[in-house]
Amino acid sequence: MLSSIIICIYLFKLFSMQVIEGSLYKIQSKNISSRQTTIVAQRGEIYDRNNDNAMVVNSDSFAVEITPGDIPSVEFDTVTAKLASILGIPKSDIDEHVPPEVRKTFTPITIKTNVSFSAIGNIAENINDLPGVSWISRPMRNYIETGSFSHILGYVGKITRDEMNQMYNQGGYTKNSIVGKIGIEKQYDSLLQGKDGYEEKTVDVRGRVLSDTSISVPPKMGNKLVLTIDSRLQTLCEKALGNRIGSAVVLKPSTGEILAMVSYPYFDSNLFNSENYAEEYQKLIKAENKPFLNRAVNAAYAPASTFKIIMSAAILAEKAFPEYERVECKGEIEYGGRTFHCWILRPGHGKLDLKHAVGHSCDIYFWQVGRDHLGIDKIAEYSKMFGFGQSTQVDLPSHSKGFVPTALWKERKYHERWLDGDTMAVSIGQGYTTATPLQVADVMCMVCNGGKIYKPHLLKEVRDPVTDEIIQSVEPEVMFENSIDESVWKKIREALRFVATDGSAKYAMQNPTVKIACKTGTAEVNGYTDSWHNWLLAYAPYDAPVEDQIVVNVMVEAANTWEWWATYAANIIIQGYFANQEFDEAVNALNFRWLIKPTRMME
Predict the structure, then answer these.
(1) CA–CA dist 73, 92 (Å, integer)
(2) Under a CB-based contact definition with an 8 Å cutoff, are residues 361 and 602 in contact?
(3) Which residue, 4, 373, 553, 603, has fewest beta-carbon neighbours within 10 Å?
């Protein structure tokens, strides 16, 4: 009886192992008897708007590996010393990667990445003296366009633990993944990531290959991205801004496409391919001029007199003050025990209506109308209508919203009452109001579109990396829209044209190729009268359909020597774009080949 029970138990256990748990053991057996090697996929390439200029590609790079079990124990130190000499690294680095406890295993261990082709050639020539040493191809990011393109494109690096936790649910990411850190590389990482392939070989329990046959699944390259950036125009803007801390933005107002986005200073994205990038990275991080800061979208400034465009829209739409009624500017006014000076001192601008107040950028006109007839609530309302204090939704990982102050905000933050003097400051784009250069550019886009701002974007198309077929196209998307009458926009456009023909920019904005409408701006910084941010916001051609127009915004920080350069730079950009000229050709066409030493001529 007992023997029958024992037999039944054995039979049940045998059945369980073969049938019930068989699949589990089969998987475990396969894992023990096979070794899978990852074949790294290439990231998708990035091109400019014409799909004919590669900005980011992949170049051949190699990683050197050691299979410890293939190196005879007595030769280990000799082999690793020779390999270290070829790679130009201390032998101790290899010893750290291959400690004594793993020297009998047959699992490859990566010793160094981003190894040059010449070093691989040296290893190959000495391979008989380097048992257990091998190499694999690992594509490396190659940024063909650097300089001002760096803030747009970004760079890549090995995934961190925090990034891994964030991206885990997206799938496809491992602890060895290379991911975008800033810019387009980060914003569209999931599109650029390819799908790794693998090679599977049969090995014994110690990891030694038992068969020459293998199963191979090729990698799939990431998608190709076509951006809205015009490479030629980007380079033109970079040269026009020069080595001045600031930014330049060019938009198509009818679509929201960003044709150029320059921020100076910048950095070289290829820096992160070098072995000593950590040291150089720290230098950049600590630099006072902040080269990692994309000033076009992440820095917010007082918009200065460019804000008078918003003020004009509010005055006209609200009928807050008759457009033809004139305000007298004597160069200064007294209010609240203080003297407020217009940028033109005595005798001032004289008597001005709205059009001429915009044209000559008269502070006293906007101080009085803003304070006595419009008020902070309406000013804040229209500021937000134009997108101030809100996200531009641009397709970059980070961007500032700027700030729109209100009476309630000041009371809550500072426990102080909002004063008419605060309203006066806000009325000319000073005080607490801040905006990014991209937000200021969008103000002019709304003027061009007659009440619409399209979502600014850098991605134009997603294409198949093999066939180059379009997978996805980015369509224009309205971000802000209002019902202000077209007659208001027509009057604002006329006033902005007057700025270029007879107003504050009549000398610097003369252009032989197209008609320009614009607004100058000078923002006093930190209360000092000898330190100003310099703006020039423009669109051209003035008399063309919006589909043919571009918006240009140049901002030069007060950190630079004052020279009113934003205006000249904007004209150079417009001339170069519409005349299809390079920087030097545009400068010559505008007769700007002279030493510019302007005084503070205008606001």
Answers:
(1) 17
(2) yes
(3) 4
Question: Is the bond preceding 253 in cis, omega lying within 30 degrees of 0?
Answer: no
pLDDT in tens, 521-579: 998 886 555 678 999 999 999 999 999 999 999 999 988 877 889 999 999 999 999 99
For the chain, give every residue range classified as CATH 3.30.70.2110.
61-138
- CB-CB contact of 552 with 247 (8 Å): no
CB 437 within 8 A of CB 552: no
What are the tokens at 72? 């005879």
Question: What sign has the CA pseudo-torsion 347, 352, 358, 363?
Answer: positive
- In 116-230, where does DSSP find H-type helix? 117-125, 150-153, 161-167, 183-187, 189-192
- How many of the other CB atoms lie within 10 Å of CB of 62? 19
Report the chain's C-alpha Rg in angstroms: 32
- DSSP label at residue 253: T
**Sequence-ordered strand ranges (E) for 252-331:** 258-264, 327-329
Query: Hey, which CATH number is domain 231-271+297-589, 3.40.50.170, 3.40.710.10, 2.20.25.110, 3.30.450.40?
Result: 3.40.710.10
| Rounded Cα–Cα distance for residues 546 and 494 (Å) | 15
Is pLDDT larger for residue 217 or for residue 157? 157
> The domain 32-58+143-223 is classified under which CATH number: 3.40.50.11030, 3.90.1310.10, 3.40.50.720, 3.20.20.210?
3.90.1310.10
Q: Is omega for the bond preceding 437 within 30 degrees of 0, making it cis?
A: no
Task: Measure the CA–CA gap between 539 and 554, rounded to whole angstroms.
Answer: 12
Whether omega before 541 lies within 30 degrees of 0, making that bond cis, reads yes
The two tokens of residue 499 are: 């700025």
User: What six digits make up the tokens of 36?
Assistant: 């899978």
Query: Given CA atoms 294, 297, 303, 307 in this order, what sign does their dihedral have?
Result: positive
DSSP 189-229: HHHH--B-EEEEEEE-TT--EEEEEEEEE--BPPPEEEES-
Angle between helices 376-385 and 420-427 (to 10 degrees): 30
Provide the terminal-to-terminal Cα distance of the chain, rounded to the nearest Å. Answer: 109
The boundaries of every CATH 3.90.1310.10 domain in the chain are 32-58+143-223
Q: How far is CA 406 from the centre of its chain?
A: 30
From the centroid of its chain, how far is CA 560?
A: 23
**Contact indicator for 443, 537 with CB cutoff of 8 Å:** yes
d(CA 221, CA 468): 12
212-271 pLDDT, tens per residue? 656 777 889 999 999 999 999 999 999 999 999 999 999 999 999 999 999 999 999 998
Instruction: Measure the CA–CA gap between 478 and 454, rounded to whole angstroms.
Output: 4
Domain with CATH 3.40.710.10 in the chain: 231-271+297-589
User: Residue 110: enclosing H or E segment and its boundaries?
Assistant: strand 109-115
Whether the per-residue pLDDT at 601 is higher than 50: the answer is no
